[in-house]
Amino acid sequence: MSTKNMVKYTFLAVLTAFSLICNAQINLQQGKWKAALHRTDGKEIPFELKIQTQGKTTICYVVNDTEQLKTEISKISKDSVLIKMPVFESSFRVKIINKDSISGVWVKGGSVKDLVMPFSATSKDSRFPKGSAGNASVKGKWKIEFTRADQSVRLAIGEFTQNGQKVGGSVLTPSGDYRYLDGRIIGDSLMISTFDGIHALVFSAKIKGDTIKGTLYSGATSLEKWTAVKDLNVKLEAPVTALKEGESGRLDFSFKDLEGNVVSINDQRFKDKVVVLQLMGSWCPNCMDEMAFLSDYYRKNKNRGVEVIALAYELSTDEARSRKSLQKFQQQFKVEYPMLITGVTAGDPEKTQKTLPQLNAIKVFPTSIILDKKGW
Predict the structure, then answer these.
(1) Which end of the chain is more exposed for a tag (fewer CB within 10 A), N or C?
(2) What are phi and psi of 219, to 5 degrees?
(3) Is 5 helix (H, G, I), strand (E, B) or coil?
(4) Residue 49: other Cβ atoms inside 10 A
(5) What share of the chain is helix, strand, coil (3-state, %, to 5)?
């Protein structure tokens, strides 16, 4: 057999073996699991997994209230498993201790270095400990003040639902929201958390009438004190991206799409059409929600003179890394409109000037800009 054929058949054998490993049934207890990320201060960020077996395939979901995120789970070896989040540069590398227990690390891609946190999960416990119900209620809207380590304050709105001891809802900040929160009330204590592949946080607090006071633990080390008071009319001032004062020119840009083709706002495809510009990043949880909406909207309205262009601001200027991460978004949400890599990071203080200099500032992600048929 020639060397070329030996290489070919060896590659096929390895590929087949890998496929069998990926599709092998993983011996884990089916049902709900308590998962936890372990912080350097000894605190944990709990969330829920749901394990199911369908035929010879083991499926793992990350559960937050009404949302279930289906992960990609594969066997690496006899007792090792890789669990990838459906979007984001986020995954778990774990060892199977027994059918009721796994442990390992969570790895999240970063702009400078990856975040690595210890992780464990068990089918024997629930997301939060069980306890007796009290008379405390958090249902409704709340004005929240977070106090950072430097004593500066940031404002937010909490909107919670409650059914008995079970609590859901979200917290809205000027730059986005914390998506699906899930937790419990035990006596006068509130415990509510979320994990979506990027957000990893838990709120712990005491409830006293129409006041809540507690601590927000986020990621490996971040900690903020928070206070909330009930306020049905609470509002936030939203950051606005607009044309610079005195600027009258049309937006003008050209960037590569995920296939390496240059796409320009001046292309014939966009002429005399309403164009929605989606300023986003594949690291951004709220961008995931916006993309789910816009992708569906575009499929239903693309024949009505509407176009959408996503402009991506990633964690690094590595084009290959950005493309790989954005392709997960494209596949997950079946995106049919162009996704363009700006080559400028989300954290670059000159990102607006480098990409859309006619604008005053790109302040938050996601940001949507709607251009009329004349390009304004």
Answers:
(1) N
(2) 60, -155
(3) helix
(4) 23
(5) 15, 45, 40
Per-residue pLDDT at 17: 35
CB 317 within 8 A of CB 330: no
DSSP symbol at 223: E
Spatial separation of the C-alpha atoms in residues 267 and 250, rounded to whole Å: 14
- SS3 string, 53-109, reads EECCEEEEEEEECCEEEECEEEECCCCEEEEECCCCCEEEEEEEEECCEEEEEEEEC
Q: pLDDT value at position 374?
A: 83
What is the model's pLDDT at position 276?
Answer: 97
Exposed/middle/buried for residue 308 (C-beta within 10 Å: 0-12, 13-18, 19+): buried
Cα 173 from Cα 56, distance rounded (Å): 43
Predicted pLDDT of residue 56: 83
89 touches 109 (CB < 8 A): yes
Q: DSSP letter at 364?
A: S
CB–CB of 251/282 below 8 Å?
Answer: no
pLDDT of residue 16: 35
What pLDDT does 7 receive?
A: 35
Residue 25: what pLDDT? 67
Tell me how far apart the alpha carbons of residues 76 and 78 are, in angstroms, rounded to a whole number: 7
How far separated are the first and last CA of the chain, in Å rounded?
A: 65
Q: Rounded to 5 degrees, what angle do the CA atoms 300, 306, 307 make?
A: 100
CA 145 to chain centre: 23
Amino acid code (one letter) for 49: L
Q: And the tokens for 356?
A: 């859309």
How would you label 101-121 residue by residue, b for 16+ Cβ within 10 Å and e otherwise? bbbbbbbbbeeeeeeebebbb
Structure-token match 């700006």, residue found: 342
Collapsing DSSP to helix, strand or coil, 350 comes out as coil
Structure token digits, residue 324: 């790989």
Q: Cα-atom radius of gyration of the chain, to the nearest Å?
A: 23
Q: Whole-angstrom Cα distance, residue 187 to residue 101?
A: 29
| Alpha helices, DSSP H, located in the chain | 3-23, 285-301, 319-332, 351-355
Low-confidence residues of the chain: pLDDT under 70: 1-25
What contacts 100, CB < 8 A, 6 or more positions away? 28, 29, 122, 123, 124
Provide the CA 224 distance to its chain's centre, in angstroms.
21
pTM above 0.85, yes or no: yes
